[in-house]
UniProtKB/TrEMBL annotation:
Residues 23-59 form the Ribosomal RNA small subunit methyltransferase E PUA-like domain. This is Ribosomal RNA small subunit methyltransferase E. PANTHER family: 16S RRNA (URACIL(1498)-N(3))-METHYLTRANSFERASE, RIBOSOMAL RNA SMALL SUBUNIT METHYLTRANSFERASE E. It is an enzyme of class 2 (transferase). It catalyses: uridine(1498) in 16S rRNA + S-adenosyl-L-methionine = N(3)-methyluridine(1498) in 16S rRNA + S-adenosyl-L-homocysteine + H(+). GO terms for molecular function: rRNA (uridine-N3-)-methyltransferase activity. Specifically methylates the N3 position of the uracil ring of uridine 1498 (m3U1498) in 16S rRNA. Acts on the fully assembled 30S ribosomal subunit. It holds the Pfam family PUA_4. It is found in: Cytoplasm. Belongs to the RNA methyltransferase RsmE family.
């Protein structure tokens, strides 16, 4: 079985192998009391920002403390190109599902978007809790997927803010069933930032499409079928990871 992944604070990992790192708190409790790791078992520690320490459990105390002896330190390069998905707020728990599966697939950033046709609204305390759930979901899915670099989940953005994000991208598109060009044939950059917009259940409104087009993001179709808002970002991310070479040879 692949060694489980646990998260430590930034700066807690050693620069070189041969040292020991303490894992405590909630992560230590999960390792000791839930996963029941014991001395000699393999473990991976990461800061979620691209660095991972691979080693074995050297000591265990109580219910929430262990010490790992580091045998190898790995650092992942920055992703190129970087893939960001702007996700309109879906109904119910489909937002967390979208974040979970996009994280497992390999997305680099997720932007919650308050689209005009969203049924769900993030306001006040409800919005704070919902954003925290998205971020916790990305963290846990990153661990499950054995990622060393977790996706960033940004604060909620308005349509105007999303347009600004699209304007600064090296490639930007809106997933839309009536898009003239397929995403599979779009010219993609080898580096920089790719930003895709996924609309809500009711679709992207005409004024939003116009604003995004003015920012340089044309509508693109993903395929012959219409996907749910919670699955379109996953399919698009997988397509882009393959086409850009991050999953193998590029086009």
């Amino acid at each position: 079985m692949t060694a489980p992944v646990f998260v430590v604070p930034p700066g807690a990992l050693p620069a070189a192998p041969g040292t020991r790192v303490v894992l405590d708190g909630p992560e230590g409790r999960h390792a000791v009391s839930v996963r029941r790791l014991r001395v000699g078992e393999e473990i991976v520690l990461t800061d979620g920002e691209g660095t991972g320490a691979y080693g074995t459990v050297a000591a265990v105390e109580g219910k929430d403390w262990l010490e790992a002896e580091v045998a190898e330190v790995r650092r992942e390069p920055d992703p190129a190109p970087r893939i960001t998905v702007v996700q309109a707020l879906p109904k119910g728990d489909r937002g967390e599902l979208a974040v979970e599966t996009m994280t497992e697939t390999g997305v680099d950033a997720v932007v919650p978007w308050a689209a005009g046709r969203c049924v769900t609204q993030w306001k006040g305390e409800r919005g704070v809790k919902a954003l925290a759930k998205w971020r916790a979901t990305a963290r846990e899915a990153g661990k499950q997927a054995r990622r060393l670099r977790f996706p960033v989940v940004h604060d909620l953005m308005t349509t105007r803010q999303v347009a600004g994000l699209l304007a600064g991208a090296d490639f930007a598109a809106v997933l839309h069933e009536e898009g003239a060009a397929p995403l599979a044939a779009a010219p993609l950059p080898k580096r920089g930032e790719i930003v895709l917009v996924v609309g809500p259940e009711g679709g992207v409104a005409p004024d939003e499409l116009a604003a995004f087009a003015d920012a340089g993001a044309a509508p693109c179709r993903l395929g012959p079928t219409v996907l749910r808002t919670s699955t379109a970002g996953v399919a698009a991310t997988a397509l882009l990871l393959g086409r850009t070479g991050r999953w193998g040879a590029p086009d």
